[in-house]
């Protein structure tokens, strides 16, 4: 009996290896944004590991189980099932709305929490799953904020709208259009491309004849960059408005000097205005030897939110983590993190940027 008791006690206090899943595009056109988020998540795990984590009396070693969903909805569901099979306790991801939305059902069926650092389409958290959360503002906030800035600050009256036909790009454009029309802005045309398009001259020639004050493009930097560059080559003077998928440091090189005609929005506040932004930026650049693109602080905080839920639940059981997450009140790099009844972050803010001399420059912050 003593031997059995000793074994049980040893087992009870044995070290645990706990996997946190991560999924984003790590190859393809959106790879830079995906890798940036992965770096943020990895930095959080390394920090937590260096300090030591104890849950329910056991030392916990965290591992990042990182998967490439290639920004493809079908691949995303395969990746989600793999992470479930790997027995991760929670997932930080996916990177994009078009992948996060279909993956969400798989995590829900498995009872595993999913925290996206970057999916902004409102539908992501409106599917009725108790496992779905995000630490970033939604397109229902970002699209209207961009429209409001265009109307009330830039005083634009006529706007052409283009999107890349993805859940993200189309969703952002839809929200922009609704708010723009409500503000009395005339939406003179609506066109769709794809997230693989590289030649926009046909659409841009048509839009040039319409003489808009601005062109709103819902899409990622890989397409918005060439779009802006080709617009400049066609002598189109209209401002290019875009959302967070385009609002990266990489856009400056993709669009060249035409980036200076781009105004883009990001959910959240600028890194330099985040409560922990300056310290995080310093740590990130020291660890990875490159600047933050966009989502790293959100992925970093998402990992800490998962660990906070573990501590409050006193368990690494995925089901107990899911139960603890709605009561989250965590102060991270991006600020206070609390969730509403859908799993969306409360207290959303939107930041507006442009580009000067090849650098992304903060313009304004809009509280939502």
Write the layout of secondary structure elements.
Elements: H1 2-12, E1 16-24, H2 31-51, E2 53-55, E3 58-68, H3 73-85, E4 90-93, H4 97-110, E5 113-116, E6 132-134, H5 139-153, E7 158-163, H6 167-182, E8 186-192, H7 201-210, E9 214-218, H8 221-233, E10 239-242, H9 251-255, E11 262-267, H10 277-288, H11 296-313, H12 318-324, E12 330-332, E13 335-337, E14 349-356, E15 359-367
Parallel strand pairs: 1-3, 1-4, 4-5, 5-6, 7-8, 7-9, 9-10, 10-11
Antiparallel strand pairs: 2-3, 11-14, 12-13, 14-15
Tell me the number of strands.
15
CATH architecture of the largest domain: 3-Layer(aba) Sandwich
Average pLDDT value?
A: 93
Radius of gyration: 21 Å
Overall 3D shape: elongated
Looking at the structure, the CATH topology of the largest domain is: Rossmann fold
Query: Structural class of the secondary elements?
Result: alpha/beta
Superfamily at the CATH H level of the largest domain? Response regulator
Major beta-sheet overview = 7 strands, mixed
Number of distinct helices: 12
Order of helices and strands: HEHEEHEHEEHEHEHEHEHEHHHEEEE
Low-confidence stretches: 1-13
Biggest sheet, spatial arrangement of strands: 8-7-9-10-11-14-15
Number of domains: 2
The share of residues in extended strands comes to 15-25%
The CATH class assignment of the largest domain is Alpha Beta
Task: Report the span from N to C terminus.
Answer: 63 Å
Helix content: 40-55%
């Amino acid at each position: 009996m003593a031997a059995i008791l000793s074994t049980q006690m040893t087992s009870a206090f044995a070290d645990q290896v706990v996997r946190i899943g991560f999924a984003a595009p790590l190859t393809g056109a959106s790879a830079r944004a995906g890798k940036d988020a992965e770096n943020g998540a990895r930095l959080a795990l390394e920090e937590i590991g260096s300090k030591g984590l104890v849950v329910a009396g056991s030392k916990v070693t965290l591992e990042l189980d990182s998967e490439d969903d290639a920004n493809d909805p079908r691949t995303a569901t395969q990746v989600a099932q793999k992470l479930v099979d790997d027995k991760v306790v929670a997932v930080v991801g996916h990177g994009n709305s078009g992948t996060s939305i279909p993956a969400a059902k798989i995590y829900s069926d498995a009872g595993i929490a999913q925290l996206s650092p970057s999916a902004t389409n409102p539908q992501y958290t409106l599917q009725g799953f108790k496992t779905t959360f995000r630490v970033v503002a939604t397109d229902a906030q970002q699209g209207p904020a961009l429209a409001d800035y265009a109307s009330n600050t830039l005083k634009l009256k006529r706007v052409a709208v283009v999107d890349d036909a993805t859940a993200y790009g189309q969703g952002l454009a839809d929200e922009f259009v609704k708010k723009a029309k409500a503000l009395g802005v005339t939406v003179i045309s609506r066109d769709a491309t794809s997230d693989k398009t590289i030649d926009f001259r046909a659409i841009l020639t048509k839009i040039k004849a319409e003489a808009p004050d601005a062109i709103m493009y819902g899409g990622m930097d890989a397409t918005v960059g060439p779009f802006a560059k080709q617009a400049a080559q066609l002598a189109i003077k209209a401002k290019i408005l875009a959302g967070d998928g385009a609002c990266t440091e990489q856009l400056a090189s993709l669009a060249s000097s035409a980036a200076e005609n781009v105004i883009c929005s990001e959910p959240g506040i600028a890194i330099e205005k985040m409560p922990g932004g300056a310290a995080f930026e310093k740590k990130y650049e020291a660890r990875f030897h490159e600047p933050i693109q966009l989502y790293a602080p959100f992925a970093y905080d998402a990992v800490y939110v998962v660990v906070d839920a573990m501590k409050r639940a006193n368990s690494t059981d995925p089901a107990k983590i899911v139960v603890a997450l709605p009561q989250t009140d965590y102060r991270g790099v991006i600020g206070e993190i609390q969730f509403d009844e859908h799993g969306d972050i409360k207290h959303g803010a939107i930041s507006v940027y442009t580009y000067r001399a090849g650098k992304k420059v903060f313009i304004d912050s809009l509280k939502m």
